[in-house]
Write a structure and sequence with these properties.
Blueprint lengths: L1 H14 L9 H11 L1 H19 L2 H22 L4 H26 L4 H22 L10 H13 L1 H26 L19 H15 L7 H31 L4 H10 L3 H17 L11
Length: 302
């Protein structure tokens, strides 16, 4: 049954919603947690074979096998009783390996370069947006010219590792959340992350943010082909996301403490998503690693 659910998710992902393809590990997580690794491996292989037969595509079979590794790893971590933080770490590491393997397999089996194709698609989208602005009479905007577009595409190429990492973490969180939700409905009590309002990452991660801000500035003159510029850019993106989460957690904590209604809280959070407020929220998250504004003492979301 779980193999059939896995194949169904891959079918829906292939023909309707591509993102569903990335939650195919959920049935395997549940199976491995409840029955062990051996049945999990059997179902992973069976679902991959069924998926390849139904969709008549070798890459689909390989993709399901690769994504099966994520389900096996996370299910095994849950079965071993690991903490939510360790489960997220194991799932994220396995998801990164799975995404990289999928890119390699796509390149060799389909002769399809995911990175180049993604960049070309984004470039076409940006150019279409520029044409729309031109037709609407929006002129002399410094953000709407070929030079800025070329620089943006170049930066996106350099930031591909950060994109892989953030995608892997989101993918892991969604799979973990769905598996936790389903198992809870089945009467199984599993450890879960701390409430969002209490999230606080270790203080030493602030150095990643500082390096991310500093390295691109120090090496900007040699940005083309400079490994330190690329490292700094990726650190900047990753730790901006990390401390944006911590900053939003601080905001949610004080809104909750003030007994602000949840609907109003979400409205305030939504209102904060503009460049100025997001920068302030990130800074608040960084400073919280040292000053502990909420006086909660403990660190991490787990």
């Amino acid at each position: 049954m779980l193999a059939a659910i896995t194949v169904l998710l891959s079918l829906l992902g292939a023909y309707f919603l591509p993102y569903l393809f990335f939650i195919t590990p959920v049935p395997l997580i549940i199976l491995v947690y409840r029955h062990g690794m051996r049945p999990g491996i059997l179902v992973a292989v069976t679902s991959a074979l069924l998926g390849g037969i139904v969709l008549s595509a070798l890459p689909t079979m390989v993709f399901l096998l690769i994504l099966g590794l994520v389900g096996l790893a996370m299910g095994g971590a849950l079965r071993e009783g690991f903490s939510p933080g360790k489960i997220m770490f194991i799932g994220s590491a396995t998801s990164i390996a799975a995404l990289v393997l999928m890119i390699i397999v796509t390149s060799f089996l389909l002769d399809y370069n995911v990175l180049e194709s993604t960049m070309e698609l984004m470039e076409r989208s940006f150019k279409q947006s520029m044409n729309i602005y031109d037709r609407l009479g929006v002129e002399n905007n410094p953000l709407l010219n070929e030079d800025v577009l070329g620089e943006l595409i170049r930066m996106l190429r350099l930031a591909f590792p950060a994109a892989i990492l953030t995608t892997a973490v989101i993918m892991t969180f969604v799979n973990y959340w769905l598996a936790h939700l389903i198992l809870r409905r089945l009467g199984v009590k599993l450890p879960w992350l701390r409430p969002f309002r209490l999230w606080r990452f270790p203080w030493y991660l602030a150095w990643g943010y500082i390096l991310g801000q500093g390295l691109p500035l120090l090496t900007r003159g040699a940005a083309d082909g400079n490994i330190w510029f690329t490292v700094g850019l990726n650190l900047q993106i990753i730790f901006n996301y990390v401390f944006l989460l911590q900053g939003l957690s601080i905001l949610w904590y004080f809104l909750d403490k003030a007994n602000v209604a949840k609907v109003l809280r979400w409205f305030i959070i939504f209102f904060m998503f503009n460049p100025l407020f997001m920068t302030l929220i990130v800074w608040a998250g960084v400073l919280d690693t040292w000053f502990d504004f909420r006086k909660i003492g403990q660190e991490g979301p787990a």
